[in-house]
Amino acid sequence: MTAEVRTEASAQGGLRAWLLAETVTGPGQARAQKLYLGWRRFAANPLALLGLGIVLALVLLAVLAPLVATHDPFAQSLDRRLLPPSSSHLLGTDELGRDIWSRIAYGARITLMIVLLVALIAGPLGLLIGTVAGYLGGWVDVALMRLTDVFLSFPGLILALAFVAALGSGLENAILAIALTAWPPIARLARAETLTVRRADYIAAVRLAGASDLRIIVRHVMPICIPSVIIRITLNMAGIILTAAGLGFLGLGAQPPSPEWGAMLSTGRAYMLGSWWLAAMPGIAILVVSLGFNLLGDALRDVLDPRSS
Amino acid sequence: MSRAFVSVRDLRVSFGRGARLIHAVDGVSFDVAEGEVFGLVGESGCGKSTILRALSGLNPDWSGEATIAGRPVARTRDPAMARTVQMVFQDPYGSLHPKHTVETALMEPVRIHGLGDGPRRIERVLTEVGLSPAFRYRYPHQLSGGQRQRVAIARALILEPRVLLLDEPTSALDVSVQAEILNLLSDIRRTENLTYILVSHDFGVIAHMCDRVAVMNHGVILEELTVEALMQGRMRHAYTRELYEASAGYTRRLERSGEEADVAA
């Protein structure tokens, strides 16, 4: 009887028991346990789940855009222009009669691409520059940090404007420009984090084992910095989206007829008084996605930052 | 001392510049024979840990001469030296990488030196420090202080060094665990024929572990004496006596308060 109960319990909680087991039998289980405990802390926070939900919704919207869009986002029909939201056009139509809901759905792809590419360029770049400067110190630190200061001394949007003006307008150049303005704060953060650990005994121990500087930076310093870099990038996502929208708004980012949210907002501005939905709908989309990334970043900080626990 | 295994001559380390120049170690010489346990004792800031950091290669800014196992100690880090000299740090809470499992921490030196047979080596050192293989995939935060220090010792042993530098290896641990770790270190020294240089401010630890001890103050060695001489109170320097009695008095007070507690119970 007791044996039966026990097998039943272990069958029910098999995965759970494995994830919480005291004796760990392999590196995979050790990693899975760590992830699971992190997830439990994350899931305990309702705002965190909301943030994650919004970001997942953005991803789904981008992936499923052809399925959820009710119209062709580029199809113009001048007899249906400036229609208010209705059952045939969920969020109304714009000044050329294009369906705003469908354009927002396809625009999610552009937003997601901007965010991902900027994170993939700025994150590793900032992490590398920050950890190298912080770990090596001396003139390397001085040179890299003065360079960072130069980038930091301009407001991000202004610098992005200058880059786009130099490189020519367009989405790719806008992404590049935003990435170039996004790495300095990350480098600063990674350097500060590196300075707190470079004198740690565990770094001294691996130096004693004969490790090269490169190995120490990549395998021992970077894992310490990565959580704060991820948090920082997630929190910066909102700013990145706004900068991209700002560049689109000024006509320097995505070019018409691409359904970039900032560009849609910009053209909607001219019709704001008569047809509020042209500007409001992409504006709401930008707001919600920015909020989602901010909530997610805050929650990740609670889970990943060892100092908060 | 003709067959000195570790030999240090006129070692000097200073920090800072100009008016704020501090001579942390101001001309220290000593010899340690193979298989011996040599103690460095003194109050905080007397330069004893600085000597270990210079010998290990962690601090390259020193002058003087040092040889270990017949090879001069280089100012820069030297991979061959890593397999001769290893160090156990004071604080086991700071000496293990928080994001690495025991396995990763132990595997790292093996990988750096391109040695094969990692899993077998890990199993051997874990057994040697008295940890079951079940600890392999634990993270440091899942271990107690004593277990962490055992992992740190295992990491120092995995490259099979000849000399271990012990920087107050028990001072950050609970009293109940200190003796365990000290006995473990003694056992390992006997089975592996290691040479220890042990830094401590605790005469109890020194008396338990060492053959000879050097008493340091303000960056210089005041005197060198055997542990027997120390226990019999045959020190030449007033400072040594003061330090020894302060430490012994503290122990006696501890014992007395323990007895009182027994009586009360």
Q: Would you mind describing this structure in some detail?
A:
The complex is a heterodimer of chains A (309) and B (265). By secondary structure, chain A is mostly helical. Chain A has one domain: MetI-like (MetI-like fold), CATH 1.10.3720.10. Chain A contains 13 helices and no strands. Chain A has helices spanning 2-12, 14-20, 27-43, 46-63, 65-68, 100-136, 138-152, 156-167, 171-197, 201-208, 213-249, 261-268, 277-304. In chain A, helix 3 (27-43) packs across helix 13, helix 6 (100-136) runs antiparallel to helix 11 and helix 11 (213-249) packs parallel to helix 12. Chain B has 265 residues and is an alpha/beta fold. Chain B has a single domain (36-58, 74-264), classed as Rossmann fold. Chain B contains nine helices and ten strands. Chain B has a six-stranded mixed beta sheet with strand order 6-7-8-3-9-10, with helices on both faces. In chain B, strands 2-1-4-5 form a four-stranded antiparallel beta sheet, with helices on one face. In chain B, a hairpin with a 2-residue loop joins strand 4 and strand 5. The termini of chain B are far apart. In chain B, 40% of the residues are buried. The interface between A and B is medium-sized, with 25 and 37 residues.
Briefly, what is this?
Chain A has helices at residues 2-12, 14-20, 27-43, 46-63, 65-68, 100-136, 138-152, 156-167, 171-197, 201-208, 213-249, 261-268, 277-304. Chain A is mainly alpha-helical.
CATH class term of chain B: Alpha Beta
Uncertain stretches of 5 or more adjacent residues of chain B = none
Which fold does the CATH topology of chain B refer to? Rossmann fold
Radius of gyration of chain A: 24 Å
CATH level-1 class of chain A: Mainly Alpha
Strand content of chain B: 15-25%
- Quaternary class: heterodimer
What order do the helices and strands of chain B follow?
EEEHEEHEHHHEHEHEEHH
Reported for the largest beta sheet of chain B, the result is:
6 strands, mixed
Could you describe the largest sheet of chain A, including whether it forms a barrel?
Answer: none
Proportion of residues in extended strands of chain A: under 5%
Q: How much helicity do the residues of chain B have?
A: 25-40%
The first-to-last residue Cα distance of chain B is: 53 Å
Order of helices and strands of chain A: HHHHHHHHHHHHH
Helix content of chain A: over 70%
